[in-house]
Structure formats: C-alpha cells, structure tokens
Design brief:
Length: about 200
Amino acid sequence: FADPLVNDDVTLVTEAYQAHLVAGHTSWAEDTDLDGDYDVLTVNASVEAIVGGYLYVNAHLYDSSYNWITTEWNGAAIAAGSGVDSVSFVGEEIYAAMGDGPYDIGLDLYDYEWNYIDTDTHLTAAYAYTDFDPPIAMFVPPFSDYGRDDDSDLMYDYLVVNVTIEVFDPGYYTIVGDLYDNWYGTNLGYYTYSAM
C-alpha cells in the first residue's frame, strides 16, 4: 500500500497431516517354526502421529537389484505421539523371487480412508533369498515356447510352452496356463496339467 496507515488482516489456513513417517524404521527376519530358514521378514514403520487414529502402511519389497518381490500392508491404531505399524513379508515369496538383499522396503502411509499421507524407505540387513523358507514348489526361469505343426499343413496346431518347476515338497500338483492376446487381453484358451 502507498499509505503506511492502511493495513489489512490476512488469515492463513493450513492443513496438517494426521501423521508422518519418521527415521527409526527397524526390520528383522524370524524363523517361527525353528527349521533353520526364516519364515517372515518384518518391518516396523516408525510413525509420528499428530492426532491418534487408524493408519495403514503399504510396504513394497525390492531385492538388491531393485526388482519388485511383493507388496504387503497392515493397519494399526496409532495413538498421538510416536508409534509403529508392523508389516510382514512371507519368506516363501522372498525365496521364490530368487533375489538377494539387502532388501529395500518402500513405505507408504495412508489414513483410515486410504488417503495418501507420506512415503519413506528402509534398507534391511544383507539376507540371501536362500535364508528364507522355500515354497512347496516354484517356477524356475527361463521359459521357452514354440509352435508345433502335427499335421504338416504349415500351420501351427499347438503353442508349446516349456516351464521348469522345482519341487521342495513332493506331492500332486496342477499347472494351469492361460493364453491372452497382446492387444485386448482376450483369453484365447487355457490348459491344465496335473501330475505327481
């Protein structure tokens, strides 16, 4: 204003988040069945809550080459102040991904209505994927495929897909394959195979 005696009042309105993630996340692996392999990898996400309430942590697990392994989430009632929300990853999924640590865990914080609040990361200790429980069976890459012409009409009769399966717990297994086109996601067929 040109006149120093003229003034105006301004009200500034801000909106504070209910909570945010803070430094101090911890993680550990646990062998719950005492077989020598870890069953779960758990991260405690450190939360500072301005106002207490129910919060969700979405945790994304990546190996040391930053290949995605899995995503898990957990909700917890967090009181005002410092708190933690624990999220656990299944050891069998870590083993099946065949990627070693240290694992990078991306943490996303949401309120009780799943409105995004904050993000942070945590780096675990240097575990090998073989430190975790193997699944009962798993696909092992690489995979291959080829067209097969059984009636010699120069047209493929079958699409043959070769997969390797490593079985840790012998039993009866069923493999189901679904074929989709690349354009519209249309299911073109399926095949089921069962064996011991």
